[in-house]
Write a structure and sequence with these properties.
192 residues, single chain, Cytochrome Bc1 Complex, Chain D, domain 2, globular, 2 strands, 55% helix, mainly alpha
């Protein structure tokens, strides 16, 4: 009986999340959270924990969002998150966690992948396992994301516009521009 109630509640959250997502998120993040915009991340498949933490940080202003323009409308995640309540964020987190992440098809410099993989193994693998594709890390999905988005986020971390674990910030600061380009191409090459 309890298992049935749990499954029913989960399905309810996913169904309600589907409606909310199509109303609030799809125009920027794409159908089912698989973005087609280079500046906007795919959020399908993110862990519910990571999604809720990100939204909480946007809502409180601890994580700053870049402005994004779509169809003449300018918005950002800080404004969007401030307009969502805790229950809506929970429903959306469960909905997107239940969706399948589709890796972005993009131009990749294949000559940089081996170098990028070495950098990943040395600097990123402990927190971003399975080549950056494991949502259970609660550290976001890097593998298969847009290169444009990844570059933007790395620059925000390096320039202290976005907070992150000290260990990660120290490692990013040591990387040269060529190293960052290589690791971004490595993540972008992950097609699951």
């Amino acid at each position: 009986m309890i298992k049935y109630i749990t499954v029913t509640l989960t399905m309810f959250f996913i169904l309600v999340g589907t409606v909310e997502a199509s109303q609030k998120c799809d125009s920027c993040h794409g159908k089912n959270g698989n973005s087609t915009e280079p500046e906007v991340p795919t959020i399908a498949g993110l862990s519910s924990t990571y999604f809720k933490d990100a939204m909480k940080n946007f809502k409180r202003g601890k994580r700053q969002s870049e402005k994004f323009s779509l169809n003449g409308r300018v918005t950002d995640m800080n404004a969007i998150a401030r307009n969502l309540n805790r229950k809506e964020i929970t429903r959306l987190s469960r909905y997107y966690a239940s969706q399948t992440f589709v890796a972005r098809k993009q131009n990749i410099n294949y000559s940089l992948i081996a170098k990028g993989k070495k950098i990943y193994r040395r600097n990123c693998m402990r927190c971003h396992s399975k080549n950056g594709t494991n949502p259970d890390d609660d550290a976001g999905i890097l593998g298969g994301q847009s290169k444009t988005y990844l570059i933007s986020q790395i620059n925000q971390f390096k320039n202290r516009k976005r907070k992150g674990p000290r260990k990660m910030i120290r490692k990013l600061k040591k990387l040269k521009a060529g190293d960052i380009t290589a690791v971004i191409n490595f993540f972008a090459s992950q097609q699951r």
